[in-house]
Structure formats: structure tokens, C-alpha cells
Specification:
Helices cover 54% and strands 11% of the residues. By secondary structure, it is α+β, with helices and mostly antiparallel strands. The protein has a 4-stranded antiparallel beta sheet with strand order 5-6-10-9. A 3-stranded antiparallel beta sheet has the order 8-7-11. It contains 9 helices and 11 strands. The chain folds into 2 domains: 51-180 and 314-351, Up-down Bundle (f41 fragment of flagellin, N-terminal domain); 192-307, no CATH class. The two termini are 20 Å apart.
Length: 400
């Protein structure tokens, strides 16, 4: 055994082990005091990168929940306003049905009904104009936006209420011109008249006093403005019930669509409607044969009934109620979707947080066990370093 004064190998070894143990104990203290297994990149570089990514997801998902809750609030605000719009339209319809009962109403009574309808239309417009969320109008046809309902780009849900020029006001709903006190016409001016040709079994529908609408060389027939009812062989067809396609660019296309609708309603074939210089003409496909009975003649002779203002109002209001109900149904579906989205986000947050915790958080029980071990080793190492430092004292006996 070499006995050296300059180099105490035992002390150096004890010091090295004590330093290692002390570093481990300090890390255990840091983990126990912070609650995190990873306090710096050196603790677990890969784990840190993964946990930071998970933290980003958790933060984004938490904000997405709040965003989705805002979406629910917007939808509820809009649907609540549309609920009142529906009530207004229902009242307008009741008034129109009342006004259609011309057998017991005077002109003054009908005018009084129209006054209430005017006020109701104004309230429809006010609701559409003033309903907003955080300063953004909801029912004027301009609301078309998205809600960020996820932690990543592109995870959105769109919400649109109406469209540009088609808001939830009286104009957008098609009831701005409702007037139960007026007699409706198929053109802007004049009253619809009809003449039945007994020889051809046809009806010519012409607006009285509206030459500018049909007879001007620069203006062609516009079948989309027709109203009234054609009756033929025990069936009836409301001319205003045709839903013309917005893609139609010519009146010829509208005539084609009109014929398709009347054929479906009356069971006719071919092109019973044709355009004339002054309007349109409906020709019955079956012309009564010679010697036909009175009943056959009556059934095969088409008739035309002019629509009244109240009747036209009922039709227009029914369409408006359908539009509002459809918008409310869409909003209700979006609200249910938002609620499911929130539930899914909360579940994802829970699972992602658990994953991040498993990577980054300290297992307190295991770390306390490790701390106790390093604490004992530190105490033992300190004692052994003291003993190693004392071991060289025996050399002094040799020198004495």
C-alpha cells in the first residue's frame, strides 16, 4: 500500500461520490418543490419538446371552448329574435285571413287591418336592423362568419343568417308589399282580367291598364309576376306558387318552369301556357268533342280566379314563415352542434392534459423515495469524506 501525503485518493473518491449524490438530491428537491419532473431542457430534451407541444394544444383547446360558447351565445341571440319575428308573421297571417273574409268586412275595416300590418312590418324591420351581438348585426343579411372551434388552423364552424339582400326584414322575407286592403294584380299596375274562348278552351290572362308591362316592344312577358288560380278538370293551380329558379335568365325559361309546375298540379302535358303579346294564355289540352255533356263541358273548360290582396298576402306570409322557420331550424342545429363540439373539446382537453402530466409532472411518491435515498447517501458521503481526510494523519506517526 502506498502512503502519500500529496494525494488522498480515498478523499477524492469520497468527494466525487458526494458531489454526484448532492446533485441528485438537489434535483429531487427541485422536482419536489416545483411538482415538475422536467424543469429545464437538460432534464429531458425530447420530453420537454413533446410536453410544450401538448401545452400549446391544451391552451388552444381551452380557448376554442370559449370561442364555441360565444358561438352558442350568438346563435341563441339570433334565434330568440327570430322567434319574435315568427310571432309577428303569424299575427300578420291571422290578419290576412281575417281581411280575406270580404263578405263581412267593409273597406274601412280592411284598411284598419292594414294599419296593424304596416306596424308589424315596421317591427320586423326594426328587429332585423337592431339585433346584434357585440356590435355585429345578425339578421340584416350580412352575417356570414366562422367560429374557431379547434386548436389548429382550419378547425372552424361557419354560421350564416340570410344572405346579402335577403335578411330577416320585411323586404328580405318578401312581405314588404303586403297590402290586404288592395286588390292584387299580376302586374304592378292594373287589375288582372281573363277572357275564356269557348271554341278553343283557352284563357288569356292580361293585366288591365298595364300596357307598359306586357305590350311595349321593349318589355317582354314576365310570368314570375302572375297570380290568381287556374281551375281545370276539378283541380286548381295557384300561379303565384311557382318557385322560379334564380338561375333563369330569360322569360322563356320561366315559361318552361311554369308549364312544368302546372302539368304537375293539373295532370296536363305539353305546354299549356304560352306567351302572348299582352300576357300569357292557358289552353286546355282536352277540347270538348261535339255533343259533349254539360258536365264534360264544365270540367274541360278552364276557369281563372283573380287573387285578392288578402289572398296574396297569405301566400307571401306563408313563404316568409317558411324562410324564418328554416333559418331557426338551421340555428338550432348549429347550437346543438356547438354543444357537441364543447363536450368533445372538454374531453380532448382532459386527455391531452393527462398526457402532458405523465410526461412533465413529478411522481411525488417515487421522487420522495429517491430524495430519501440521496439524502442518506449525502450524509454517508459527508461522513466518509471526513474519515478519508483523517486517514493521512497516520503518516505523522512514521515521521515521529
Amino acid at each position: 500500500m502506498v502512503m502519500s501525503v500529496n494525494t488522498n485518493i480515498a478523499a477524492l473518491n469520497a468527494y466525487r461520490n458526494l458531489s454526484t449524490t448532492n446533485t441528485a438530491m438537489n434535483k429531487s428537491l427541485e422536482r419536489l418543490s416545483s411538482g415538475f419532473r422536467i424543469n429545464r431542457a437538460a432534464d429531458d430534451a425530447a420530453g420537454l419538446a413533446i410536453s410544450e407541444g401538448l401545452r400549446s394544444q391544451i391552451g388552444g383547446l381551452t380557448q376554442a371552448v370559449r370561442n364555441t360558447q360565444d358561438g352558442t351565445s350568438v346563435v341563441q341571440t339570433a334565434e330568440g329574435a327570430l322567434n319574435e319575428s315568427t310571432s309577428i308573421l303569424q299575427r300578420m297571417r291571422d290578419l290576412s285571413v281575417q281581411a280575406a273574409n270580404t263578405g263581412s268586412l267593409s273597406t274601412t275595416a280592411t284598411s284598419s287591418i292594414q294599419k296593424e300590418i304596416v306596424q308589424l312590418k315596421q317591427e320586423l324591420d326594426r328587429i332585423a336592423k337592431t339585433t346584434n351581438f357585440n356590435g355585429t348585426n345578425l339578421l340584416d343579411g350580412t352575417y356570414n362568419t366562422v367560429f374557431q372551434v379547434g386548436a389548429n388552423a382550419g378547425q372552424t364552424i361557419g354560421v350564416a343568417i340570410g344572405s346579402v339582400g335577403k335578411g330577416m326584414d320585411s323586404s328580405g322575407l318578401g312581405v314588404a308589399g303586403v297590402d290586404v286592403s288592395a286588390v292584387a294584380a299580376n302586374a304592378a299596375a292594373g287589375v288582372v282580367t281573363a277572357a275564356v274562348s269557348s271554341t278553343a278552351g283557352s284563357i288569356a290572362i292580361t293585366p288591365s291598364g298595364a300596357a307598359a308591362d306586357f305590350t311595349s316592344a321593349s318589355v317582354v312577358v314576365d310570368p314570375t309576376r302572375l297570380n290568381g288560380t287556374i281551375s281545370y278538370q276539378g283541380k286548381s293551380f295557384d300561379l303565384s306558387s311557382v318557385q322560379y329558379s334564380s338561375s333563369n335568365t330569360t322569360n322563356a325559361q320561366n315559361i318552361t318552369q311554369l308549364n312544368a309546375a302546372v302539368n304537375a298540379a293539373l295532370g296536363t302535358t305539353g305546354t299549356p301556357f304560352v306567351a302572348t303579346a299582352t300576357g300569357v294564355k292557358f289552353t286546355a289540352p282536352d277540347v270538348p268533342a261535339a255533343g259533349a255533356t254539360i258536365q264534360t263541358l264544365a270540367a274541360d273548360a278552364p276557369t281563372f280566379t283573380q287573387a285578392s290582396g288578402a289572398s296574396a298576402a297569405i301566400t307571401a306570409i306563408d313563404s316568409a314563415i317558411t324562410l324564418v322557420s328554416s333559418a331557426r331550424a338551421d340555428l338550432g342545429a348549429k347550437q346543438n352542434r356547438f354543444e357537441h363540439t364543447i363536450n368533445n373539446l372538454n374531453t380532448t382537453i382532459e386527455n391531452t392534459t393527462a398526457s402532458e402530466s405523465r410526461i412533465r409532472d413529478t411522481d411525488m411518491a417515487a421522487e420522495m423515495t429517491n430524495f430519501t435515498r440521496t439524502q442518506v447517501l449525502t450524509q454517508a458521503g459527508t461522513a466518509m469524506l471526513a474519515q478519508a481526510n483523517q486517514s493521512t494523519q497516520s503518516i505523522l506517526k512514521l515521521l515521529g
